[in-house]
Amino acid sequence: MQITVNPEAVGFIIAKAREFDAKVEPDDPDSGSNPSDDKGVNILEDFADDPTIEELKGAIDGLNDDESRDLVAIMWTGRGDYDKTQWSEAKQQANTIPPRDRSRYLMGTPLLADYLEQGLDELEIPVPEAEA
């Protein structure tokens, strides 16, 4: 069993997916306060100019076709659709998602970070710590 995507890249995507999943609708979108006044809670709010979504999308889109295919297969493995003995099948099925649609597909998956982490674990690949 071999993956083409660098585990460190997966670690970075996991970190960005966790940040993305933690976002909530803004409580007060027109707030004029500063971080010290609001105790930093605005960092969890999802604003249109928030770079988290672009960083996550950019990290996924920056992968080549084989790497993004493997990322989808890792996510499916972590979700329980496949196990490590079915790795070739998972990769073959992931090829049915066009490369240009993979970031949208992955980012639309609830619990993406958890599934990627569990997928690496199932494949017995150490989960790297990523610097976000």
Describe what this molecule looks like in 3D.
The chain has one domain. It is 50% helix and 0% strand. α1 runs antiparallel to α2, α1 packs antiparallel against α6 (112-122) and α3 crosses α4 (87-94). With 132 residues, it is mainly α. The two termini are 28 Å apart. The protein is globular.
Concise structural overview:
The protein has 132 residues and is an all-alpha fold.
Low-pLDDT runs of 5+ residues are 41-47
Number of domains: 1
Q: Say how many strands there are.
A: 0
Strand content: under 5%
Query: How large, in whole angstroms, is the Cα Rg?
Result: 16 Å
State the helicity in percent bands. Answer: 40-55%
The average pLDDT is 84
Along the chain, the helix and strand elements come as HHHHHH
Tell me about the largest β-sheet: none
Could you say which structural class the secondary elements and strand pairing correspond to? mainly alpha
The dominant shape is globular
Number of helices: 6
CA distance, first residue to last residue: 28 Å
Descriptors:
single chain; 132 residues; mainly alpha
Element layout with pairings:
Layout: H1 7-22, H2 52-61, H3 65-79, H4 87-94, H5 102-107, H6 112-122
Helix pairs in contact: 1-2, 1-6, 3-4, 3-6
